[in-house]
Structure formats: C-alpha cells, structure tokens
Amino acid sequence: MGRYIVSRLALAVPVLILASLMVFTIIRLIPGDVVTMRLGESGETPEAAEMRRVLGLDRPVWAQYFVWLGNVGRGDLGLSLWTGKPVAEEILLALPVTAELALLAIVIALAISVPTGLLSAVVRESPLDYVVRLVSVAGLAIPPFWLGTMFLMLPAVLAGWAPSSRYISPAEDLTENLKQFILPALALGYYYAAFSMRMVRSQTLEVLRQDYVRVARAKGLSEPQVVVKHVLKNALIPTITLAGAQLGVLIGGVVVIEQIFSLPGLGRLTLWAISVRDYPQLQANVLLTSVFVIVINLAVDIIYAWLDPRIRLGS
Amino acid sequence: MGSGGILESTLPRLRRWESGVAVRVIRRPLGLSALAVIGVISAAAALAPVLAPFDPEAIHSDHVLSPPGWPFIMGTDDFGRDILSRVMYGGRISLAVGVSAVVLGVGLGAFIGLVSGYLGGWFDLLVQRVIDALMSLPTLILALAIVAMLGTSVRNVILAVGVALVPGTSRVTRSVALAVKEEPFIEAARVVGCTHPRIILRHLLPNAFGPLMVIATASLGSAIVAEAALSFLGLGTPPPTPSWGQMMTGSARTYIVTAPWMAFFPGLVLSLLVLAINLLGDTLRDILDPRLRSR
Predict the structure, then answer these.
(1) What is the pLDDT of residue A185?
(2) What gap in Å lies between CA B2 and CA B9, rounded to an integer?
(3) How far is A32 from chain B (nearest CA, A)?
(4) How far is A251 from chain B (nearest CA, A)?
(5) Does residue B6 belong to any structural domain of this protein?
(6) B272: domain range?
(7) Mutate to test the interface with A, among B38, B122, B141 (most CBs of A within 10 A)
(8) Interface of A with B in 114-153 (CB under 8 A)
(9) What is the pLDDT of residue B233?
C-alpha cells in the first residue's frame, strides 16, 4: 500500500508541473495584456513601457515562468495586476462562496441520486426503473445554465420574489444566505445527480450479482434486509469515489451558475480575470482548480487501491 | 489483399459493419425515436433558409417581446425578431460546431490513444502525463482559456471544444489498443511483416471502432452544450449570428420575467437534441458492447 501511494505521488508531481506550464503558456498567449487593458489602446507610450517593466511583463516568457514557479513554491501567488492586492486574498474571499455552492449541490445530488439509483437497480426493468433512467438521461441533457436561468424566473413569476443580487454571507444572515443559495445549488445539484444516479444504479447491479448477496438471500434474509445490510454499503463506496472523479463537471457548472446568480465565487473571479487579462489572478485560479482535480483523483486512486487489492498488486 | 491501400481495403468492411449497426439501431424503439428527433432538428437547421418563417435578423418593431402565438410561434425578442427563425438558424451553428469539434477532437484523441497504447514504453508514459495534465483542467475552463487566447470566432470555438475532447477519447482508445495488441492476430500480423502504421490502421483501428462510435456520440452532446456554454458566457460565436447559448443570455436574462420565452425555447430545443443524442449513444453502446447491456 505504501509503495503504491509513493508511486502515485511520484506520477502526480510531473503532472502538476506540466499543468502549471500549460496554464502559464496558454494565459500568456491571450492577446492584449493588462497594460493595454488599463491604459487603453493608445499604442506604445513610454508610460506603458514603464508599467510593463514594473509588472515584469517585459521579460521573456520562460523567465516569467520560473520567477512565478519559484514564488508559488514559496507560497507566494503574486499580486493582482489590476487591484494590486495579493491574489491569494481575492481567492480567500471567493472560496467560501464556491465551497458553499458546491457543497450544497453535492448534498442535493447525493440526496436525489442514492435512493433513486438504488431503487432503480433493485426494481430493474420495471416502469419505475425506466422513469428513473429517463429522468437521469434528461438531467444530463439539460444544461445547468438553462436550468439556472429558468430557476431565476420561477420565484419571480410564482411568488413575486427574487433572490438578492447582493451576496449575503452565512455569518450575516443564515436564512437569507440559504434562500440565495438554494436555487443555484438545485440547478447545479440536479445536473450532478444525473451523473451519480447512473453510477449508483450500475454499481448496485454489480453488487446484486455477487455471491455474498446470493448467500444472504439463501440464508433467508428479506430483500430489504439484503439491500440495506449487504448491498448499500458495497455499492456506495465505489460510487462516492467515482463521484469524486466527476468533480470536474461540477467545476464547469460552478462558473456558469455563479455568473447567472451573481455570486462572487471563484468562477466569477476567473471570468473577470480573463476579461481584464489579470495574469497572476487567472494563473492562481486555474492552478488551484487543477491542483484540486489532481488531489481528488489521487485520493480516488488511493481509496480504490485500498478497497481493491487487485489494483495495487496488478502490473 | 493488395500490397497497397490499407484504407481502401478497410473501408468496405467498415461500411458493411456500419450498415449492420444502423439496422439494429432502427429496430430499437429508443434508437428510432432518438434518430427521429435528431433528424427533425438537423433538417430544420439545415433547411432554415427555406423553412424559417422569417429572416432571423429582421426587426418587427411593432411586435417587440410578443408572447408565443401567431405568426411568431415561439414569440419575439426585445428587437422584435422571430425566435423560431433564430432557433432554426442557431441550430446550424450548434450542429456545425458540435460535429466539427467531435471530428477534430475524437480523431486527434483516437490517433494519440492508439499510437500511445500500441508503442507503449517511455513514449506512452510521456504522452499519458501530458493527457493527465490536460485532464486536470476542467473542460469548460480549458475551452475558456483557449477561446480567450485565440479570440472569439466560429473556428476558434471549434478548436477549443475539440481540444477539450482529446484527453477523454485518447484514454479510451489507448485502453483498447493495450488490450488488442496482446491478441494473437497482432502477433501474426507482425510475423508476416506488417509495418507499424499498417497494424495500427488495419488491425487496431477497426477494433477500436465500436468504442469510438460510442465516444463520438456522447462527445457530440457535450460539444453542443460546451459551445452553448461558451456563447452563454460571451466567449462563443460572435453576434449577430444567432446561436442557442447566446440567445439564452444578455437581453434574454434582462427580460427573463416579462418574456421568459426568449431563453426558454433555445434551451428546450438544445436539451431535446442533446437528450436524443445521448439516447442514441446509449443504444449504440448497448449494441456494440453487450457486456454493458441493461446495466
């Protein structure tokens, strides 16, 4: 087990460095820099050249990369080229918003997908199974930004109420905060639920075929007892790890949902950084996302190997 | 079997195989209805210049924001433009971008996956780490960065969405290549002196064709959604060309309470199309991979 973890970690480091290099290069290739954005398209004035020198943008890209990588290694993500504040500060302000949205969405998704997926597998090929499968396939087809837009309209049309366009933190007013988050979380959670519903269903079917389930039935347990005691746990562990691997889907959804509901989270911060060419902010955000995905995948691999010895012992 | 023309001798076989699959898709009620929905929406988009009741950019100033009815079946927008006609024209962009991105992304991904899996060794290790790095960037973030880098145009959106499809495709094709290259018939091909390109094209590719069809179909759905998401965020197809994502944002959100039909219909058609494509993908998977059937 220890050797497996070390070998997975050893593979993750070059991937992380490659990802950071990709992020850095792609972002530098975006035409127009923060100087042209700030000073307007007035051409190459001495003022613009001076600003580039101060910001370090006059140096070759590879030199900028190594300076940045060195700073990141020391925990310094740099200053925003636009506001002059540390980018880490902006991220810390936005992170709780995104974390709350993602967490609520995951809770909603699991609350929908686990019972329905399980039920659907148990009553396989029944009308109920077909309904669950249809809802899940439909969920994958409905883009979260459309569902979000429709959700934005519903309370206004039905109850003459609109969620606050100003962000309210949970510390300020928990009820108002939840009122503000429930619709975006539902729009995002439904999409994610559609993914995990299929996984719960197929994992449950897999478990139902196992010999120990046949034994449980043979020794006279009732079907609900079999499902709760033997199937549920065995089907859920791989499902939750698989759901972790699908978090990238959630991240893409976060960007559009935050935009629709005007929530000042990481997605909005990233879009804003793209529009004003704020390199350090954008790099930090994308790097953070990619670190997050790599860490989650690593955790998923390790949990899997721990659960299934064939993976860590094979090849 | 002639000495040359690897592709020439492979293609007729693939065509026979394809027609067999097509018949089996049509025989299934789900496959047939999925094909019908895709057919109707594609035809409406392709024949938009003939079928659309109005010019998509014509402004009917005395019918601003009129609700669905006659003659504007899906209503009009804040400029008084006919939504139905715009949805039909928008479908051209969505489908064109989706199909081109899939051809580009799945083609490139399949090539990388087959070569990487077949050659193995340090080459495979290196390529897979690059794929890992690409995969650590969520699809939409990667596409956003590429469009921001290249500028918004139809071509660049295709490129961005296509590149975002490469990592997933190459992973699946690589696993097929890894499994198939150990088969005795590959060894036999090597013994009779087949070159590496010949083995990859003639022996590995046909075996990967089933999974590739399934990935291509599934990717088409996500490519269409990705294009709409980019347009929705203002980084997709530039106006005034109507596209579904674009029609759901901007003034559609300003008037979301008074004129919800502006955002509703493009999204509805988009969802229906993606639903049909996903169902077709499921049907194909059931036919081509019996191990996964009725899971």
Answers:
(1) 92
(2) 8
(3) 9
(4) 7
(5) no
(6) 24-288
(7) B141
(8) 124-125, 137-138, 140-143, 145-146, 149-150, 152-153
(9) 86
Burial of A97 (0-12, 13-18, 19+ CB in 10 A): buried
Give the rounded distance of the alpha carbon of B234 from its chain centre.
21
Residue of B nearest to A288 (CA): B137
**Is residue B12, in this structure, part of any structural domain at all?**
no
- Kindly report, residue by residue over A216-244, the tens digit of the pLDDT: 889 888 888 888 888 887 887 777 776 77
Task: Please state, as a whole number, how many other Cβ atoms lie within 10 Å of the Cβ of residue A288.
Answer: 17
Low-confidence ranges of chain A (pLDDT < 70): 30-44, 54-55, 163, 242, 245, 308-315
Q: Which string of b and e fits B32-57 if b means at least 16 CB within 10 Å?
A: eebbebbeebeebbeebeeebebebe
pLDDT of B18: 67
Average pLDDT, chain A: 82
Task: Give the residues of chain B that fall short of pLDDT 70.
Answer: 1-19, 289-295
Q: CATH number for the domain including B169?
A: 1.10.3720.10
Set of chain A residues whose Cβ sits within 8 Å of the Cβ of B267: 142-143, 146, 149-150
* Stated pTM of the model: 0.83
- Inter-chain residue contact B274 with A18, CB threshold 8 Å: no
Of residues B134, B232, B279, nearest to A145 (C-beta): B232
A22 shares contact with chain B (CB less than 8 Å): yes
Chain B contacts in chain A segment 162-221 (CB below 8 A)? 201-202, 205-206
DSSP label of B242: -
**At the topology level of CATH, where does A90-275 sit?**
MetI-like fold (1.10.3720)
Cβ contacts below 8 Å, chain A against chain B, sum to: 142
Summarize pLDDT for A246-303 with one digit per residue, the tens: 777 788 788 889 988 889 999 999 888 887 778 788 888 888 888 888 888 788 778 7
Is position B294 within any domain?
no
Please tell me whether residue B295 adopts helix, strand or coil conformation: coil
